Amino acid sequence: MSNYCTAAQVAVLLNKKEFSDSTPTTPTETQVTEVCAMITNEIDVILNMIGITAQPTDTSILGMLKKYASYGSACMVGMSYGRNFSSIEGSQPKYFCDEYKEFLKTLRENPEILGIIAGADSLTVSSNVLDGTYTEDEIDELFIDKDYKV
């Protein structure tokens, strides 16, 4: 399993030149990479809950996951290693936290954003119609006919 984002991508979001192990920074590159792994694992757990048991390979889906994994990682790194904010309202890490939190909520509630119902070929999703979990009418009612914001 590979992480959806890298320490270098998180550094860009937090306006840092880089994170490094050789010339130690706070946090180090290893610590940021560990945060990226935690965020990737969290996203993968939710993907598994909605029926995606392997990491997606579709480039457009990976691009979206990279963006939000970077946001989640920038949130954790910014809040953990950033300045001691007396109030995080309006701060850059707060923005990343809010965006990441909203993404996780949307992913849980509307997995259609990943093209599951539309049938993205590279996803491994069980057919809820074939296995009897939902009838075709229930699929239409629950997923297709709703007006989702993406």
Describe the structure.
It is a single chain. The longest helix has 23 residues, at 59-81. The chain has helices at 7-13, 29-49, 59-81, 92-109, 136-144. Helix 2 (29-49) packs across helix 3 and helix 3 packs across helix 4. 25% of the residues are buried. The protein has five helices and no strands. The two termini are 27 Å apart. It is mainly α.
Write the topology of this structure:
Layout: H1 7-13, H2 29-49, H3 59-81, H4 92-109, H5 136-144
Helix pairs in contact: 1-3, 2-3, 3-4
Characteristics:
single chain, 52% helix, 150 residues, 5 helices, mainly alpha
Main beta sheet strand tally, sense and closure? none
Count helical runs.
Answer: 5
Mean pLDDT, all residues: 79
Low-confidence stretches: 117-126
Distance between the termini: 27 Å
Entry summary:
By secondary structure, the protein is mostly helical. It has five helices and no strands. The chain is elongated and about 60 Å long.
